[in-house]
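Dear colleagues,

As part of the handover before I leave the project, I'm documenting each prediction I ran so the next person doesn't have to rerun anything. This entry is a single chain, and its sequence is reproduced below.
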Amino acid sequence: MNIGLFTDTYYPQVSGVATSILTLRETLEAQGHQVYIFTSTDPKVAKNVYERNIFRFPSFPFTGFPDRRLAYSGALHAVQIAKELDLDIVHTQTEFSMGMIGKFVAFTLKIPAIHTYHTMYQDYLHYVANGKLIKPGTVKTAIRNYLKNMEGVVAPSQLVLDTMLEYGVTAPVRVIPTGVNVHSEVTTEDVAQLRTQFGFETDTPVALSLGRLAFEKNIEDTINAFSKIVDTIPAAKLLIAGDGPARESLEKRVTDLHLEKSIIFTGMIDHSEVPKYYAMADVFVSSSDSESQGLTYLEALVQHTPIVVMDSPYVEWLISDPSIGISLNTVEDLGEALTTYLNKTAAVGDVTKRDIKIEEVSAEHFGNEMLDFYQTVINDYNANEEQTGDSLFGTISNPFKRWHE
C-alpha cells in the first residue's frame, strides 16, 4: 500500500504528534508498505539534505507557536508528487496547511482521505491573542467542517471520540490508540551512567516529568507537590526534561521555593536518549489535564516505570493496576501518590498485568489497527465510487469553497 501522511509537524520538531507519525511510518514500513511524508520546511533541515520519502513545502512560523510551521504553497506540486507515487490513501495529521493540501490531493486524484485528530484545541486558545480571538465554539465549527467530507477519522482515545461526537462529526470514527516501540532496550549500565551524570546515587528516589514545557501542562502543580515531598524524602529528586515557553516561569518557581538542588531542568534531550530517562526514574509524573493520548505515559510504561497522572477516559483504560500507575482527580493528591513510588518500600501492584498492557500498546498493534482501517476505508470508498461516481468532495467544481463552508 502507498500511504501519504500530511502533517505540519515532523522531525526535527519535537511533539507528541511528530512521535506518533514517526512511529506509524516505521511500523508500516516494517510491514512492507510505502509511507511518504508531506510536511513543512524546517530551519533545522538544510534544503540540500536528502530525507528519504519526505517532501517539504515552503512554510513560515505559526503565530503563538514559533517552533511550529504552516506551509503557504505547494498544493499543485503535492498533487504531482502524489500522482507519481500512486498513493492509495491520504492520511492527514493536521487541520491546517498540509491538511488542506492533503484534502486537495485526495480530491484531485480521487482517492480516499482520513484524518487523525491529535490536538484538543480548546486547551490551547490562550496562545492566540490570549484567548480573546478564538472561542471554543469557533473550534467546534471549524473542526466539524474540516472533517465533513473525510472518509474516516482516527481518534487516539475515548476522550477524542467523545469530542468528535460532541462536535457533530458525521464521518466514521474509529478509536486507535497510538502505539510505542516496546522493543527499545535500556541496559543497567545506561541507567547507572545517566544517574552518575546527574550526581544521583543508585538508590536516589527520582521522579521524571518529560515533555514540552508549556503552560497548559500544569507542570507548576508538580513542582508545588514536590516541595512537600522533599520534607519527608530529603534525597528525592525531580527531573524536568524538555523545553518550551513555560521554562523560565517554572525555573523561577523552583528558585522561589529554594529547590534548585532537588529539582533539575535538563533542557531538550535527544529522542534516542528518552528511553534511558524513563528507565532511570522510579516514577513518571504529569499534572496535565489536557492530554488526548498521553504518549509519554506509554513510553514510561514500556520501560516499566509507573506513572502518576491526572484522570481521563484514556487513563481509565490505560491504568488497570498499581504496577502501571495511579490516576488522580485532583492535584492535591500528587504528593501522596508520588511518595508511594519514591519510597521504594515494596513492589506496587501485579507486574504481569503491566506486561499484558505493554503488549496492547505496542507499535505493531497500532500499525495493524491502522492498516485495517485503511483497507476498510479504501473498500468503502471504491464501492461508493462505483455506485455514484462521486469524489471525496462530491460533484462540485471548487473544493476550496467546500473547505471553508
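The chain has two domains: 2-179+363-403, 188-360. The CA atoms of residues 213 and 244 lie 4 Å apart.

All the best with the project,
I.
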